[in-house]
Amino acid sequence: MSVQPGWYVDPADTETRRYWDGEGWLGAPIPVDATPPDGPPPPEPPPAPATPAASTTPASAPPASAPPASAPPAPGWPPQQGPPQGYGPPPGHGPGWGPHAGPPGWGPQGAPPGWAPPAGPPGWAPPAGHPGWPGRPPEPRPHGLRLAGYGRRFVARLIDFGLVLALNVVVNGWFVWRWAQEWAPYWQEVFRRAARGDTSADGLPMPGEQAGSLLVAILLIATALWLAYEVPTMASGGQTIGKRVMRIRAVPLAADQPLGFRRALSRWSTLGLPTLLWYCVGLGLVLQLVDALSPLFDHPLRQALHDKRAQTVVVEVPHRTESAPSNDRNQPPGDTP
Questions:
Q1: Given 70, 143, 295, 314, which residue has the most CB atoms within 10 angstroms?
Q2: Where does the record place the RDD domain (predicted)?
Q3: Among 137, 138, 140, 149, residue whose Cα is nearest residue 120
Q4: 220 φ, ψ to 5°?
């Protein structure tokens, strides 16, 4: 394997460049930063014969020494740099071993200074079995915080549900009572016939037209109460009362900061607005159940559907350890130990 003819850095003197014709070096070296000619260097003129006068001088200057013969570049060694001192094949390799040759100017392709592989979104981690992760990868910690567990999130949602239900009893109770009165004759007759073993539905008293209007009003009030309870507190601190009790909060994926009203509203609407669809044979309840169970199947950030829409994640709130401030005046004078 031979190196193509061309101008290369002299391995014996890396500050000079010489022409390699494929078998040996030609011509005198030139500075490494000089622009080499397109082809081989012009032939050097033969040295002038010594004159008799020069031979009669008592002390003649020594002839100029030719540039030291340098070894040819190692076959296949990348141009623009010479092989290091003592370069040779590793033990166990036969003659002719060496890196593959390339065209002039070729060299191993390196990354630009400061380059690094692109990073994923905050909290991202390679999936299990990813090359470089033996076994299961570590759990992501968005903004340095631990992800909230499913148990904490479920208990926090139950607390919030109980508080919203209590608000509905106070504000929505009269409408619910009127709606129940509209349906009372129907259910009383159904139970009376069931006690007699009669399964026919003929002649059952149907609720009045007000029943449908009352149900719409109940759902609108319930949705509005849930909106007023959750969105403002989530916008300001990422926590409802239930989340405060369970020491968890929602934060944006982009940065550890408050959600803001727009993001909090987007997050709540995915879970809260289907309440209006309870009117459609419980369709809204099914959608809310799917949303509530979705964190169980999301990895690795355990995001519910409303979290994915708002680009949020639920994390644990760390305990704050408060240390007493030091007071130098309470210490006796003397050398510091």
A1: 314
A2: 148-310
A3: 140
A4: -65, -45
